[in-house]
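Worked problem 6 (solution included).
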Amino acid sequence: MCNLYTTKASADEIADAFRAHKPAAFNAGPGEVFPGYPGMVVTQENGARALRSMTWGFPLKLKGARPGSKPKPVNNARADKLDSFMWRFSFLERRCLIPVSEFAEAEGEKGAKTRTWFRLPDQDVFAVAGIWRDTPEWGPAYSMVMTEACIHVADVHDRMPVILRPQDWRDWLDGAPDDAAMLCRPYPDLMVKEQTSVPWVKRTSSQAVNT
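Solution. The predicted structure is:
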């Protein structure tokens, strides 16, 4: 699973890199992105690319949840489950690109997990496959498509985001579903892995230790 990523480029830089229109009023920018919070995505609308701000995660109301409680953001969509009811229509009709500079996975013992980052050596920002839909709870929301881990990620987690090469952006955004599905594969090229001592969950001194 991917529950944290960073986009280090500004909205204007993302719009230029992805050849997308950016609206004058735009409320997402560079920084760390967590489930349930806004992130930048690129969609294909009326034959043109548009940069949009959406909430990361499809809202899911848990069974037995208290009345008025917030939904859970389902921020990862497994590539082998894209034909399920939750993801099917978004995959068929509403695919998007998620601009990412690096993504993190938790590594280490329970209670002492740290952040391990993965990025591409030759790209400051790359595209991860996403799907999106409008929701009554949060407005437009997106989820990140996950596939089997490549050799650079497999020793930390068995899955990773679907990373798209620039020549594949068009097929993901606007291609036939079968062509898009073929792109859901482990990334075949070189990746950079950076292990850190930064706790996976940053806590204040008054917070309990729970991971």
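Discussion: The first helix runs from residue 11 to 18.
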